[in-house]
Amino acid sequence: MSKFEKALSCLRSKPKDFTWKELVSIMTHFGYTEIKGGGSRRKFYHTQTKSVVSLHEPHPRPVLKTYAIEIIIDHLKEQKLI
Question: What's the CATH architecture for 3-78?
Answer without folding.
Answer: 2-Layer Sandwich (3.30)
